[in-house]
Specification:
Number of strands of chain B: 11
Helix content of chain A: under 10%
Order of helices and strands of chain A: EEEEEEEEEEE
Shape of chain B: globular
Strand content of chain B: over 45%
Radius of gyration of chain A: 13 Å
Distance between the termini of chain B: 37 Å
Number of helices of chain A: 0
Number of strands of chain A: 11
Oligomer: heterodimer
Chain lengths: ~110, ~110
């Protein structure tokens, strides 16, 4: 089982819709969870961090964490064509261990 | 605050050569991590330095090495380059226990 799994996509949504991106992780002791956005040819950009169960909202983005089920998701409301990118989920297990990244989900927002 | 900077941005080398990449973290950040990104393998962790000490190491051969200086700037070196080393090399800096990492623009290495 991979440590961090994401559906590779592409996930296609129409402009204005809600995009839902999911990530599961294998290690129950994982503590910190991150979502990065990466445009083609660019480096990853941190868009959300979440550490506790529940929802965390930042503008059009909402991260949801469920440690019991070992998944973290990212919702993008009112999706825009500029949201078209690859979204990477990253997980930190304990303390100063390295982040483990999923392979990313490619999102395409259709105008 | 200035972001993470990496130099050079692009490099073309031939097999057997060696290369050194540089990363300057966000001011005040003491942790620098290096990653290799390829289309097939995604982001793979190379190593992390904190206060001039290697804190974590990924599963890469010994041809890949790094170091960190007292000002937190970091370099990574790849010796005896192979075609498979062609990739985007990213560094990320982190400043706190929350483990949030901020990436530089990357160095795209092409090995011919």
């Amino acid at each position: 089982q991979k440590e961090v799994e994401q559906n590779s996509g592409p996930l296609s949504v129409p402009e204005g819709a809600i995009a839902s991106l999911n990530c599961t992780y294998s290690d129950r002791v994982s503590q910190s969870f991150f979502w990065y956005r990466q445009y083609s040819g660019k480096s990853p950009e941190l868009i959300m961090s979440i550490y506790s169960n529940g929802d965390k909202e930042d503008g059009r983005f909402t991260a949801q964490l469920n440690k019991a089920s070992q998944y973290v998701s990212l919702l993008i409301r009112d999706s825009q064509p500029s949201d078209s990118a690859t979204y990477l989920c990253a997980v930190n297990k304990v303390g100063n261990t390295p982040l483990v990244f999923g392979k990313g989900t490619r999102l395409s927002v259709i105008a | 605050k200035a972001g993470v900077t990496q130099t050079p941005r692009y490099l073309i080398k031939t097999r057997g050569q060696q290369v050194t990449l540089s990363c300057s973290p966000i001011s005040g950040h003491r942790s620098v991590s290096w990653y290799q990104q390829t289309p097939g393998q995604g982001l793979q962790f190379l190593f992390e330095y904190f206060s001039e000490t290697q804190r974590n190491k990924g599963n890469f051969p010994g041809r890949f090495s790094g170091r960190q200086f007292s000002n937190s700037r970091s370099e990574m070196n790849v010796s005896t380059l192979e075609l498979g080393d062609s990739a985007l090399y990213l560094c990320a800096s982190s400043g706190g226990s929350d483990r949030e990492q901020f990436f530089g623009p990357g160095t795209r290495l092409t090995v011919l």
